[in-house]
C-alpha cells in the first residue's frame, strides 16, 4: 500500500486536480472497486455480520436497501455528476460543484458543506478506526488504543503522500482482497465440522432465543422495515463515494464501471450475510460464547484456518478499514483546502500550497477521528449509521435535484443542506430516534427534499435555472 502511495506521488500529485481527483482519469474497474471498497469499510466485515449474528436474517434488509440505493446512484447520479462537474468550471469537490451550479449562494454553500463534511467524516472515520482497534485487540490480544493509532498511521502513510490516485489504486487492491475473503470464509464455515450444511444450519439456529432465519419476523414493524431499507437513501449524499463518479475517465465509461461495481457489491453483501448466519450456527454447535458480535469474522478467522489463511482474512479486514478511512480523510482534506483555506484564507494560493494544506488537513482530521474512536465500547454500526444518515440527508436531495431539476436555485440548495443536517442531528440528540424507532435519514431526507422544493419555488430566478439538465449519453 505504501509502495502504491509512492508510485502515485510520482505520477499524480503535481496539482490540486491531480491530488484531489487523480486527473479525472480512473479506469472503470478502478473507479468501481474504489467506490465499493471506500463504501463498505470495516462495516462489511464487522458491523453487518455482527448484526446478522445477533438477531438473524432480518438485518439483511440493510444490505438489500444498500444494493438498490447503489444501483440507482450509479444510474441517476454518476453520469450526470461526471459531466456537470467538469462543465461547471471543472469542480474538484462536491461543495465546489454546488457553488458553481448556484453562484448566488456559492460562498455559503461551500462553507456550510465543508463544515458538514468535516464534522460527519470525523465521526465516520472514527468508525473505521474503532474497527482497527477491535481487530488488533481481538486478533492479537493487544491494546485497543494502539490498534486505533496504528491503523491511522498506516493509512496516513500512503494517503498523505499519494493523494486520490494512491487511495483509488489501493482501494482496487483492497476490494479484490475483501471479495475473495467473503467468498472463501462463508463456504468454509458452512461445511466445517460435523453436521454442516444448509439444513444443519437451519436446525441449529431454529431454537436460538432472539434469533430468526426469517426475513420478516412477527415483531417486525412497518417503521422498522422502512428504516432498514432506508439505508439505501444514503448513497446519493456520500461525498467519498460519489467523488469516484467525478474521477472516472469519461461519461461513456460510467456504464462499465456500474456493472463491475454492482457485481462486486452483490457478491460482497451475500458473503457478509453468510459470515453472520453461518458463523452463529458454528458458534452454537460448538458452545462458544462471543461477547462482541461484531468480532465474529475475527473469531472465525482465528479458529478455523491455518496461520497463513488467517493472515489473509485479517488483511482483508484491515483492507476494508483502510480503504474507507483513506477515502474519507482525503475528501475531508480536499474540502478544507479547496472550500475553506482557498476560499477564506488565501484566494491566491498556489497549487503547491493547496497540496501541502491538503496533506496537513489529512493528518488533522485523522487525529480528531482517533480521539473520537477512543472508547473501546463504541459500536461500528452505530457510528456508521449516524454519519451515513447525516451525509445522506444533507447532500442526497441536494445532489439529485441539482443534477435533475432545472427550477432549483441557490436559496433552495442552502435550505436543503441546513435542514437535512440539522434534522439528523436533532433526531439523534433529542432521543427521537430511540423513541420512534425511525432511522434519522428518513425525516432528514424528506424534510431536506421539501425544503429545496418549497424555497426554490418561493424565491426568484437569479440566473441559475438550467433548461438543459439531462442525463448524458453513456
TrEMBL record:
Keyword flag Ribonucleoprotein: no
Cell compartments where the protein resides: Cell inner membrane; Cell membrane
Pfam annotation, one family: SSF
Keywords, comma-separated and alphabetical: Amino-acid transport, Cell inner membrane, Cell membrane, Ion transport, Membrane, Sodium, Sodium transport, Symport, Transmembrane, Transmembrane helix, Transport
Membrane topology: Multi-pass membrane protein
Membrane-spanning intervals of the chain: 51-77, 107-126, 146-169, 176-193, 222-243, 263-283, 303-332, 353-373, 385-403, 410-429, 441-459
Superkingdom to which the source organism belongs: Bacteria
Major place of residence: membrane
Catalyses which reaction(s): L-proline(in) + Na(+)(in) = L-proline(out) + Na(+)(out)
Keyword hit for Transmembrane helix: yes
Family the entry assigns: Belongs to the sodium:solute symporter (SSF) (TC 2.A.21) family.
Function: Catalyzes the sodium-dependent uptake of extracellular L-proline.
Protein's name in the database: Sodium/proline symporter
